[in-house]
Amino acid sequence: MSRKESIVMIGAGNVATFLATAFHSAGHRIELVYSRTLSKAAALGSLVGARHTTNEDDISVAGGIRIVALTDEATVALAGRNPFGGGLLVHTAGSIPMSIFADCSPDYGVLYPLQTFSAGRGPSGHGVPFCIEANNRSNLEQLRELASGTGNTVYEVSSESRLMLHLAAVFACNFTNHMYVIAGEIARKSGFPFEIFHPLIKETAFKASEQPPELSQTGPAARNDLIIIKKHLDLLSFSPEYKELYRKVTESIMGGAAESGNDPPGG
Q1: Count of other CB atoms within 10 angstroms of residue 114
Q2: Rounded mean pLDDT of 14-32?
Q3: Do residues 84 and 105 touch, judged by C-beta distance below 8 A?
Q4: Which string of b and e fits 1-27 if b means at least 16 CB within 10 Å?
Q5: DSSP structure class, residue 170
Q6: pLDDT value of position 267
């Protein structure tokens, strides 16, 4: 039977809310929720039956694993002030090295959930891969047990590899979502709502999860259909930014025509 931990949640945003509720549901005790915003600290504290505070001095008094779920800038600033006290200290950032806490505690690590989180919305049952790292084997196994107890997959990932994963995730999630924004704008110019793309988006994501995405690539660039590509570029005359983006992505799909010395599509 896995041991039950006491947890101090430092932060009350989207990531902190997911982690606090997930660990609370797994039977762990959320000892304290800290946030600079009283309403957020109180709301999350109430959700998981924890005390809440806006006073940094309270962090060192509470016992348990300290999980810093703040923005990168706020995490670095808090590490500089070092209000943490004893116990295992971890952050949840994809792009900050574990060593940020080396001078804050003898026991430190990283608990990075590789997922996108939005206010009022959980991960919808798709799972949350946890990337963990710690300064010694004992702390690593403690984090592994904590994360795996939520029913999610756990990966041991170094700071250098985690930064690369974070970069890859920007392409897989943030950039992809921006493409949806552009698609919606183009569709509305012809009087269609974004909802018309919902089945397409779901099928594309399903195929990408079932086989390597390069095997699922379709469209005019994959077919080297220069006639359609030229028509699309002409239609994008209303936005030089979108036109250039279309051109660059098309070149990337076609294998980097520009880098090889060939004329770019529609050039």
Answers
A1: 21
A2: 95
A3: yes
A4: eeeebebbbbbbbbbbbbbbbbbbebe
A5: I
A6: 41
Distances (CA, A) of 167 to 94, 96, 109, 177, 264: 9, 12, 20, 15, 27
The SS3 assignment for 154 reads strand
CA distance 20 to 172: 26
pTM: 0.87
CA angle 176, 179, 184 (to 5 degrees): 135
Between strands 154-156 and 130-134, the pairing is parallel
The structural domains of the chain, ordered by start, are 6-157 (3.40.50.720), 163-253 (1.10.1040.20)
pLDDT in tens, 191-230: 999 999 999 999 999 999 999 999 999 999 999 999 999 9
Type of residue found at 220: P
Task: Please name which of 27, 33, 28, 3 lies closest in space to residue 15, comparing C-alpha atoms.
Answer: 33
Distances 186 to 149, 191, 238, 266 between C-alpha atoms, Å: 44, 9, 10, 19
